[in-house]
Amino acid sequence: MNMQKPVTDYEINDVSDAVSLIRRGEVLAYPTEAVWGLGCDPYQKDAFDRLLALKQRPVEKGVILISHDVDMLMPLLQDLPKNIQKQMLKSWQVSMHERATTWIVPSHSSIPSWITGQHDSIAVRVTQHPLSRDICQTLGHLLVSTSANPSGRPPATTKQQVKDYFSGIFIVNGLLGQSSEPSRIIDSRTGTVLRK
């Protein structure tokens, strides 16, 4: 990223610039399937702590990690029953207008302890949103994805809402997906739907 050139209003138009900022430990807002999300590098604790502070979110609540393809998530899925894995893979092969699905899976040694907090599990999703996918693919590993809103406030559905919630945050320009609702959340171990 050319850091000599100032970033106008903290808005980013290029995926490689967004990824450079993530690697530098910044927190970014970006469009997802249904609402704006906040993301950072899950392997940088300082960035993750800043994200939680922005959201005023306790670490115990956890966050979602997203990927552009299932291969990146396979270490987390390999110990699950084959029929559950098939359900998960099918739920991640949806079109842009269908609702996304996030799954709670057992945690893994590859996931930092600050991401899982007090849990023995982690929430994961393969995103079908083109911009989110490009960010993940260029980054080369999982990305934190949590709704762009302070705790207790509605998730941002416009770029202006993101700016109203968080002054001075980097925003990756793009359009929301066509889903009308945030992802449903299912516990892979029990089949319980945690968010319908």
What do you see in this structure?
The N and C termini lie far apart (40 Å). A 10-stranded mixed β-sheet has the order 1-8-2-3-7-4-6-5-9-10. It contains 7 helices and 10 strands. With 196 residues, the protein is α/β, with parallel strands linked by helices. It has helices spanning 15-23, 45-55, 74-77, 82-91, 113-116, 130-139, 159-165; strands at residues 11-12, 28-31, 36-39, 64-67, 101-106, 121-126, 143-147, 170-172, 184-187, 193-195. Helix 1 (15-23) crosses helix 6 (130-139). A hairpin with a 5-residue loop joins strand 9 and strand 10 (193-195).
Provide a short characterization of the protein structure:
The chain is an alpha/beta fold. The protein has helices at residues 15-23, 45-55, 74-77, 82-91, 113-116, 130-139, 159-165; strands at residues 11-12, 28-31, 36-39, 64-67, 101-106, 121-126, 143-147, 170-172, 184-187, 193-195.
Mean pLDDT: 90
Count the DSSP helices: 7
| Strand ordering within the main sheet | 1-8-2-3-7-4-6-5-9-10
Helix content: 25-40%
CA distance, first residue to last residue: 40 Å
Write the layout of secondary structure elements.
Layout (H helix, E strand, L loop, with lengths): L10 E2 L2 H9 L4 E4 L4 E4 L5 H11 L8 E4 L6 H4 L4 H10 L9 E6 L6 H4 L4 E6 L3 H10 L3 E5 L11 H7 L4 E3 L11 E4 L5 E3 L1
Helix pairs in contact: 1-6
